[in-house]
Each structure stands twice: as structure tokens, then as C-alpha cells.
Amino acid sequence: MAAHVPGATQPEAGKKPPTGLIFFPAFDWAISPTHPEREERLLYTRDQIFEEGLMDLPEVTEYKPRLAEARDVARVHFCVPDVQAQVTEAHLIAAGSTLVLADALMKGDIKNGFALVRPPGHHSMRVVHGNRGFCNINNMAIMVEYLRSKYGLRRIAIVDTDVHHGDGTQDIFWHDPDVLFISFHQDGRTLYPGSGFVNEMGGPQALGRTLNVPLPPGTTDEGIHYVLDNLVLPVLEEFKPDLVVNSAGQDNHYTDPLANMRFSAQGYARLNEKLGPSLAVLEGGYAIETALPYVNTGIIQAMAGLDYSQVIEPDFIPGRFVQSQEMKRSIQETVNHLLSLWERRDEMVEEAKEQYGKFYRTKKRVFYDTDMINESQEETVRMCPDCLGYMMVGSQASRGYGRLSSAFGISIPIHACKSCQEDAREEYQEHRSDSKYDFVYLQDKPADRFRSYDARTRNERSC
């Protein structure tokens, strides 16, 4: 589903731009020496691609990574106490790699691109107190907000194909109707992070712009392609995004040690060919030898328009995995339900606007499984009749019985009206003197300026 990218430079007549790749295995970053999220995830893939001679073809070109800046992270996250405390150089390079490909796409130097980088990011939410689901910062969200800020793109569709629900990306764009987030994943009742159900549809002003497809364990190529053909592609056609991007997790594979799905390398390649994302960013996938070299090679060949029919795992047996009729009915019912929600999206938003007054408030708890942090959040959204309003998030984190930092963040959407911009900036100034919070943050996206205030030292930083 390749689409024209508004604002992108067009290639010379008759010249076909290549597919851009970036590899960043992050040798100096690991959760532990034996953790499944380690550099071998990319090294076996890189060896396979060079062995196949793909990097010598004119259809593929390799780019070098660069560091993301603190402002690129602050555009998306409230990092507590600051960006530097929550990221390593490896995180900034992984995020920066996506920005390199974003720039190359917008300049017309590539037709599409795949950032094969780690650490991954799609479990990282708007507020960051530590690592959860192997993620500190959200590479995909950082790339999306960079594209919107630098190039003026507005409507972007994110399709998350990781076996785990992309709860962090969902959280970041929950209130944004211009970002369509679709995640299909193994049912959260059977797998981390225990979320991603059909009733998670987006905030009051963005209802129906989040679509979650929980799939039963054992879902095969057939089931995932049914979702793609009957839900994802029709919804994308109607949404008409400026750009389609893919959080490309490969842990739906039948050999992945952390999940229970039955997807193949051929299934992944066909999915990419049908979806036609302009940019893909690697997320999970932990079958280092038996899946990743084949899946990633298939995806790269599909993106480059090359024949991927011979990319087959050594142990793959055609017809080995068959879905039961009960499983097929379950997937069809889920798809039909989500299509009905999609059709009612505008109606649901109008009903929500009538239901809530001037402000929408909600509370939630977040668990950081890697760092064993518990977080309590209270979220408030201004329900403005003229724009999307602005968001305020109060956050308190603890580990065991020990209190960690508290924070208050204000986020102004890039297209907020003047009144909401002024009110949000006043909220930031007022909360600087609120003794309840250790840190206060302002995401001023219209001005592309980001501030943080340390109430303990009374120091303010800006980026």
C-alpha cells in the first residue's frame, strides 16, 4: 500500500530509489549477558544478508546511524528526572537511526527504509521512569513526531506487527486522531503486557483511531493475513494517511521462545509486500538463529521489490500449522467487531464530547517489569471545542516500599489553538511552585521547545 509522501522530494525521471537499511546491534548495551534481547538478534541477520549478496544490489543501500538529540526524545517523552538519566548512547543511536531513514525518505533518496536497530522501543510510554518490556524510549514514536515536526506531515498510520501489544506507542498517541494505531498481537490474557483488547480504542477525541486485534495463541499465516486483508488494508485505505510505518516485531514466528504464534518468514514477507510501509522499525523477535535471519531477509527483499520466494526456514514444512475452525471464527468475529467500531468512530467521538465536560480525567497504574517500578498516573485532557486541547499527566513512581520521583507533565499538541497553548504554558508556570512534584515538564510542540524544572534545585533546562 505504497503512498505518495507529502513534502517528499521526487526522484529523477526513470530512476528508482533503493531501499535504505541501517544496522545497529548495540554491542555495548544489554540487560544481562544471557538476556534474549542481545546483539546476536542483528548479527545473524547481517551475516545472512551479506552471504546472500543483498548489500551488493542496486535495489538496497546501507546508511550509517547517528545520535538522536535530547529534544527528539523530549518531543515524545517526559523522562524522569531527565533524558540523560533514562538513555544510553545506544538508545540515542537506535532512535537516531530511524531519523536518518526518515530524512532520506523525505529527500527522495530512498523509496522505503528498514531500521534494524536495538534496543527496541514500543513498550515505552509517554512518561519514562525506567525500562519496561526491554524498552526505555520509543524509537517509532520519536520518528513519527520528528516527521511531523520537521516535515509537516499530519496523518500517519502505525501498524504494529510485534507479538506483544505495543502499549507504549498506544499510550503516546492515545489522544491523537491524526495517528491511526493498529496492533495485532497474541491475546493479552496469555502474554505480556496483558493489554491490547478491542475495548482499548483511544481517548475521547480519538475513539476508533486505536484498533487492537488480540489473536489466539497458535495463529498462523492464514489468520494474520485474514486480519491484514479484511481489516488493516481497508481501514488504511479509508484513513488515507500521509505515511504508513511498521513497528516490525518478528516474534510471531513459530520458533520464537517468548510467544506461541505460528507465523513464517514467507508470511512476514507477504505481509510487508501487501502493507507497503514507507518505513519499518525493528521491535522484538528472539529466535536468533531459527527465525530472524530468514524473516528479516524476506522483509528486506519484499521492501526492495526482489523475489523472496526462496526465503524459507530449513525446518519449515508446508501445511504443518493448521488453524481450527474455532480459531478462524474467533478471528473473524474480532475483525467484524473492530470494523463496526471503525465505522462508528466519528459518532463515538461526538458522544464522548457530550459526555465529558471541560476536562476528561482518568487514572491508571503502570508496571516496569524490567526495573520493578510501580507507577501511578492521573491524566487530564482539556476538551477544547476548537482543537485537541492539551494534556496534563501527574506521575508518582515507587520501587518496593521506596518512593521514587514524582513528576507533572504538560503536553501541547502541535495544532493546538492559541487559547490552549496559553493555558498550558500557564499551567507549567503554576506547577513549578507545586510542592507535590519533584519535576515539572512542558512539551511545547507548536514552538518545538521542551522544558524541565527541578523543584528541588529550582533549576530549569530547555531543549
Shape: globular
Strand tally is 17
Please give the order of strands in the largest beta sheet: 2-1-4-10-9-6-7-8
Overall pLDDT, averaged? 93
CATH homologous superfamily heading of the largest domain: Histone deacetylase domain
Stretches with pLDDT under 50, minimum 5 residues: none
CATH architecture of the largest domain: 3-Layer(aba) Sandwich
User: What would the CATH topology of the largest domain be?
Assistant: Arginase, Chain A
Order of helices and strands: EHEHEHHEEHEHEEHEHEHHHEEEEHEEE
Domains, number: 2
| SSE-based structural type | alpha/beta
Give the fraction of residues assigned to helices. Answer: 25-40%
How large is the share of residues in beta strands? Answer: 15-25%
- Terminal CA distance reads 37 Å
Over the alpha carbons, how many angstroms does the gyration radius reach? 21 Å
CATH class of the largest domain: Alpha Beta
Q: Mind summarizing the main beta sheet?
A: 8 strands, parallel
Task: Please specify the SSE layout and strand pairing.
Layout: E1 19-24, H1 40-52, E2 60-62, H2 70-74, E3 78-79, H3 83-86, H4 89-106, E4 112-117, E5 127-128, H5 139-151, E6 156-160, H6 167-172, E7 179-186, E8 210-215, H7 221-239, E9 243-248, H8 265-275, E10 279-282, H9 292-304, H10 325-343, H11 345-355, E11 359-368, E12 373-382, E13 391-399, E14 402-412, H12 418-431, E15 439-444, E16 449-454, E17 459-462
Parallel strand pairs: 1-2, 1-4, 3-5, 4-10, 6-7, 6-9, 7-8, 9-10, 14-15
Antiparallel strand pairs: 11-12, 12-13, 13-14, 15-16, 16-17
Helix pairs in contact: 1-9, 4-5, 7-8, 7-10, 8-9
